[in-house]
Amino acid sequence: MARARGESSGNMTAVEFLAERKIYEQWLHSYLDSRSEMEMSNRGLKRLLDLMLPLYIRNELTPHQREYLRLYMVGMDDKPMTMEEIGQLTGVNKSTVSRTLARAYERLGHQMTYLMAGYKYMRDAAEEDAE
Predict the structure, then answer these.
(1) Would you state the pLDDT for residue 24?
(2) pTM above 0.70, yes or no
(3) CA–CA separation, 87 vs 6, rounded Å?
(4) Could you give the CA distance from residue 16 to residue 21 in angstroms, rounded to a whole number?
(5) Phi/psi zone of residue 78: left (φ > 0), alpha (ψ -120 to 50 degrees), beta?
(6) Please, what is the end-to-end C-alpha distance for the chain in angstroms?
(7) What is the 3-state secondary structure (H, E, C) of 21-69?
(8) How far apart are CA 69 and CA 56, in angstroms?
(9) What is the pLDDT averaged over residues 89-114?
(10) What is the pLDDT of residues 16-66, one digit of tens each?
């Protein structure tokens, strides 16, 4: 099977890549909505996020965090699942699903903090160089 554009050379299938992409887009949308001061008109920031966040999802989250996040945001047949449904499907309590998702969001938010600080530093440096 041909790899999807931007896919790593790992064992990820095109379907897994597309599911990961959808998770990324939904998470990014909710993350940015909660930070109204951030301007998404900045194309450089959007490109940086497009590059880095899928890597963070793939490399920084545990397998359970990735799976629960995928089920919660994408679900099955493009129908997102509730925490209770995920718990029933995976054989764990709803509260376990909730805590696992909370840790996933915390990890991604932590990574985003570093990414945003680095981006701001680079943007400020570029503006100083332009003056």
Answers:
(1) 66
(2) no
(3) 32
(4) 8
(5) left
(6) 50
(7) HHHHHHHHHHHHHCCCCCCCCCHHHHHHHHHHHHHHHHHHCCHHHHHHH
(8) 13
(9) 90
(10) 666 666 776 666 666 666 554 444 446 667 777 777 778 888 888 999 999
